[in-house]
Amino acid sequence: MSLVLLSLALAVPTVYATVPTISDWNALNNTVGGRLFTAIPFASSCFSEVDGRTVTPLQEQCDIIQQHYSNATFRSSQFNNFMNTQWESCMSTNEQCALDASNASDSLAWTDFPCEQGSIAPYYIDIRNYTDIQSAFNFSNATGVPLSIKNSGHDYFGRSSVAGSLGLWTRNLEQISYNASFVPDGGNESYPAMTIGAGVPWEDAYIFADSNNVTIIGGYSQTVGASGGWLLGGGHSILSPVFGLGVDRVLQFKLVTPDGEYRTANAYTNPDLFWALKGGGGGTFGVVTESTTLVEPRAIPLQVAAFSFNATTNTSVDFLALLAENSLQWAEQGWGGHLKLNGLISVNPLLNLEQAQESMQNITDFVQSHNGTGVVETVSSWYEFFVKYVLTAQEPIGIDAAISSRLIPSSVFESQEARNALVETIANAAPYFLTISTVTPFIYNNYTENSTSVTPAWRDAVWHFLFADLWSWNTTTDGKIAVFQTLNNLTAALTDIAPDSGAYLNEANVYEPDWEHAFWGDNYPQLLAVKQKYDPAGLLDCWRCVGWKGGNDSVSQCYPALD
Ligand SMILES: Cc1cc2nc3c(=O)[nH]c(=O)nc-3n(C[C@H](O)[C@H](O)[C@H](O)COP(=O)(O)OP(=O)(O)OC[C@H]3O[C@@H](n4cnc5c(N)ncnc54)[C@H](O)[C@@H]3O)c2cc1C
């Protein structure tokens, strides 16, 4: 549906510095086996004006889009959309092709606005092998056409979405395998490991791991990719407190670097690149085709704590204070999860059921006294937990949303005074509360200092705390700017609580002011050196990524200026 023959593409307006000729595009199409396509916006079938042309809406297709507008699996199976829909639009110019997320059949969305290309890359390659990526780098080098890399499209900064770019869609790199004694190229030790193609979503990785009776440590979403931005930016799991971040467990990458080389990166081969890929962020050092990651060679039984109650303004603050009071002890015991103002969901691979019940006793008491419900129970595996608790409670997608976050260190939980300040800061901004993710590698002990490039703030953090704000399909550019300013204020409030800490680059404020330090701490200069070594021509660029060319660069044209 989203695939239109190349010949039609020539009508799509572009913003290239150097406009490629028809024969340039045709030559590219030939080198990638005819898998160069054009993309028109996800919801264009509902509109009667598309990119300045009057067209007849395609009702049948429009019905399908309306039906699946909030369906992450449907969205991630197509190139022409993103999970947070502002990244389909060009926010700075208000060009969009959006439906009303609160009611996808609201016809005002397609009668009040025309459909415009926005940030959807007008051309993309359906990547099937590394030579496709080499062709794309050659093309970009020769023509100046910027590149974007899209896997699932979950990125909170819109880094997989670049207006006017040639998109590299990795979703169909779906290979997946298990090797009980994987040896990284050039090494001699073996590990139980899964090798996962760049397009594999977490749900598929979990199903595969379960069928091989092993446990892979991954994200709390069925559609986030296992080998793309999640891993390259750090990759947290609710099992990370005990088993580490994704970057603590990856053994090897295969990728094409922007100089056109197809490379292996591991502890023995290109170790500088390997280090940079372990936290330096997606879309920066090359296009990964697959990663190989350590697995636990068994299904791991977990204790699960799941509680909820109907919170009021007052009881939610009381509950928050209780969470703050207990969080350090829970981190030391190996709990990981998502804590809310009206309940929590956490897992623990270390305690037995009785210990888990005891550890959660004061939560049980609180929730019972507020007429809530809850359980502490044992599940036999991560996959059993995933099916029962994760698939039934996915974050809403297909909306315009942005976040603000901070890693909150253990020192904040050690004194009553600091805990009070934390609770007060959050309570003052309660309408923006999103979640407290207890996903930091707090007691993970198989870690060598400086072995990854994520901010060291991860290691001592107890909470990865997130605020969020939303807007609607017809919010003006000024309205969006106001949301981002609010999120900046919230970031400032969190930074006051934890000034020396940092933030998770995959789930952070789009306008994080101190982004180099917040995302990478003292690792930034070394990351920049690796970037310059493997991408000397700067072919890959993205918003607040290592080596970012800044707000005036063409890849940043759709982010509105806040001043
Ligand atoms: C609903 C939801 C749930 C989430 N849950 C978690 C969670 O549990 N844990 C967690 O840590 N994070 C989570 N995240 C954040 C998630 O890690 C990031 O959004 C991440 O960037 C997604 O990576 P992706 O490849 O799936 O998405 P994309 O948006 O496709 O890509 C993200 C970034 O990686 C780059 N990229 C993608 N593929 C490649 C590749 N093959 N080579 C090089 N660069 C590539 C893109 O260019 C972009 O910069 C969640 C996000 C959402 C929206």
UniProtKB/TrEMBL annotation:
| GO MF term set | FAD binding; oxidoreductase activity
User: What Gene3D superfamilies does this protein's entry cite?
Assistant: 3.30.465.10
The yes or no answer to whether the keyword Phosphoprotein is present is no
Q: Does the keyword Protease apply?
A: no
Annotated InterPro entries: BBE (IPR012951), FAD-bd_PCMH (IPR016166), FAD-bd_PCMH-like_sf (IPR036318), FAD-bd_PCMH_sub2 (IPR016169), FAD-linked_Oxidoreductases_BP (IPR050432), Oxid_FAD_bind_N (IPR006094)
Record's signal peptide: 1-17
Q: Mind listing the UniProt keywords for this protein, alphabetically? A: Oxidoreductase, Signal
All copies of domain FAD-binding PCMH-type, residue ranges: 117-298
Q: Which PANTHER family match?
A: FAD BINDING DOMAIN PROTEIN (AFU_ORTHOLOGUE AFUA_6G12070)-RELATED (PTHR13878:SF91), GULONOLACTONE OXIDASE (PTHR13878)
Family from the record: Belongs to the oxygen-dependent FAD-linked oxidoreductase family.
Name listed for the protein in its UniProt record = FAD-binding PCMH-type domain-containing protein
Upper taxonomic classification of the species? Eukaryota, Fungi, Dikarya, Basidiomycota, Agaricomycotina
